[in-house]
UniProtKB/TrEMBL annotation:
This is Nucleotide-binding universal stress protein, UspA family. It comes from the Bacteria. Pfam families: Usp. InterPro entries: Rossmann-like_a/b/a_fold, Universal_stress_UspA, UspA. Residues 1-141 form the UspA domain. Belongs to the universal stress protein A family.
Amino acid sequence: MKKALVTLDLRKDSEKLVQTAIDWAKAFDAQIILLHVELLDSDNKSLDTYSQEDKEKIMMRDENMNKILELEQRLTENGIGFARVIRFGNPQDVILDVAKSENVDLIFMGLNKHSAAYKFLIGSVADLVVKKTDVLVLLIPND
């Protein structure tokens, strides 16, 4: 194994996920692909044309980018090669697409706790990715 995809959910505490990926990359002298999926498409609209909810999402991008840069600094300090991928779209589709295009050996994903009713009605990104990929997936519970 030489390359892993680390899916970032920057709304959650993903310390365990990141540390597990770092430990794995060091053990196998591997590269990490950091993936963050934005749900709001970027375009040339003025901020005045967005709803309040969309404005909040846009403002979160700066905060998210700072978190990503901090993670990249950590990888650099640990001597781990990495690449950053930021995409817009449906998370499970983007994860599957990037895993395939980057030819990764392993996908690291945080696992969010949901009620049984939520899982039954909606499912989770992790469930969908596990079902649709041939790549090994390591699910790490988010704190």
